[in-house]
Amino acid sequence: MDLYKFTFQNCELICYNLIIIIIKSKLRSGIYNMVKLAKYLNGYKKQVILGPIFKLIEAIFELIIPLMMANIIDIGIKNSDSQYILHMLGMMILIGIIGLISAILGQFYAAKASQGFGTAVRNSLFCHINELSFTDLDSINTSSLITRMTNDINQLQVAVSMLIRLVIRAPFLILGSIFMAMSINITISLIFIATAPIIGITIFFITKITVPYFKKIQNTLDKISLIVKENLSGIRVIRAFSKQEAEINKFLESNNLLAQTAINVNKISALLNPATYLIINLAITCIIWVGAEKAFIGDINQGTIIALVNYMTQILLSLIVVANVVIIFTKASASASRINATFELSSSLEPHNSNPSVQKNKSNKIIEFKDVSFCYDKDCDSSLNNITFSLHKGETLGIIGGTGSGKSTLIQLISGFYKKNHGDILIYGNDINSYNEQELRKIFGFVPQKAVLFSGTILDNMRWRDPNSKYEDIKKALDIAQASEFVEKLPLKYNTKVEQGGKNFSGGQRQRLTIARALVSEPEILILDDSSSALDAQTDSLLSQALINQCQKITKIIISQKCSSIAHADKIIVLDNGIQIGYGTHDSLLKSCPTYEKIFESQKV
Questions:
Q1: Residues 205, 268: contact at Cβ < 8 Å?
Q2: Which residues pair with residue 384 across a beta bridge?
Q3: Which of the chain's ends, N or C, has fewer CB atoms near its CB within 10 Å?
């Protein structure tokens, strides 16, 4: 008995230390990352508690079955007692039914909690991404964000499901099988105590080798997502340059790398079953050998040997499950790290005032820039340097300059999408950061350089700014944007379906629709970022005249590469490499700004 206690205590210590090593070396950071996301399970406390309880009930019944089998052999079959056998079989069927119900309930609660958890994380992550500034979004690849929203959260859902189903059940079966073996025969149970740590060490080393491969798989998935996204969005350009074969080869290279990595990790993981089965079969052989000797001298019954073999098999299956859980949690920990990194990316914009509105200055100066500078990256040169201008209500500001001169950057600052590094930006005499996000967006109507339409109908897109916009306001906006001429000719008119990205419309039609969308509900400040580049000269001229005649109360900021589009502007800013080299009217700039004069002369017919 003393020898048994000494051996059991030492083996128990070995198992405990093994678990601690695994947690410290492989799961510590992963557990930390996943615990940070545990708050999303708050709405599923019932499922998280009841799920493991039902799985524990199932495990208890699994531990009882081998003992009942032993009794059937040692008592029923040995004594030819058919009534006892039938009674025990009935009990086994009842236990099996209760165990099945418990298993189904456990699976149900695990599925409900894991899917609810995934939905909550995905919703929260999507909302968080939409709150980030443009600067923050620039720091993460779009394809990586998509992978995190889909594949990474799916990995976490699987981990949560396995946590509820197996984190208690599997260890309980291992320890329970050892305990039941000890209750049957202490001498033979030493084989169990010696086998468990050996299998655990085998699983540990195989898992240790495979962990880096799973991280590599996640990174390769990001790369494949990027290639697919670029190819789907740029398919016309790819075909125009006949680069299909090159792009296919690039995709195949990344896809083959993913496949090869998966094959390599599966080759290593494939060693798990043969290694553990070898150890278990050797242990079973030892049990049968020792059991046969004891059965021969009458110290043990045949049914007891069968029960011990069953318990050893349960240990094997449970340890394999533990190994798979470790692998699943390793994948999930990498995913949790990436998701937490996204959540930890706080917006670089200063928090806007929580007041519903800001008292607007009575001055007619709607926009004022005072010595404003900006750079996208602290390690790079400034994109804008010492920009100063002011704009009154109803005036039009034109912005012109060469490619990369900072035109689009300037209007991103005006709109509040980026945070200036130096100087002051005032809207109605108040610092731009004193406005809350909703109030600021009500002031501006923005037409981006790339015309973006959303799936739905033309009417849905026109009501993007205000869902309650009236047909009269929409028609007026379409008239000003010179879009009515083609919208009215469409069979369904306003109810015409807009496909993804508006690809069923031409570039010029998309631009006119986006201009109309911005004009609905008459914004106080209208920003047009080179939004007439796809229009012909006649349509561009008509658009300019309509903006002048019908939008007199709206303050307009127009970026254009054509002097003719901004010649009517009250003020024009000329940019060159982020520097304001000219500021004035069209006529004054022709005399005072050589760069503007060169642009104007080059565009003369």
A1: no
A2: 374
A3: C
Q: What is the pTM of this model?
A: 0.65
Q: Are 431 and 424 in contact (CB under 8 A)?
A: yes
Domain endpoint, select from 287, 316, 343: 343
Q: Are 422 and 353 in contact (CB under 8 A)?
A: no
Count of alpha carbons within 13 angstroms of residue 293, beta-carbon side: 7
Q: What is the dihedral of CA 178, 183, 186, 192, to 10 degrees?
A: -10
State which of 562, 579, 594 marks the end of a domain: 562
562: which DSSP letter?
A: -
Q: Give phi and psi for 234, each to the nearest 5.
A: -115, 30
Question: Is-contact 463 495, C-beta < 8 A?
Answer: no
Quote the tokens at residue 86: 């039938």
Those residues whose C-beta lies under 8 Å from the C-beta of residue 329, and which sit 6 or more positions away, are 27, 30, 31, 34, 159, 162
Q: What angle do CA 514, 519, 520 make, to 5 degrees?
A: 100
| Residue 199 lies in domain | 30-343
Tell me: the pLDDT tens digits for 220-278? 877 787 788 778 767 777 777 777 888 888 888 888 888 888 888 777 777 777 777 78
pLDDT tens digits, one per residue of 523-560: 888 888 877 777 777 887 888 888 888 888 888 888 88
Whether 336 and 445 map to the same domain: the answer is no
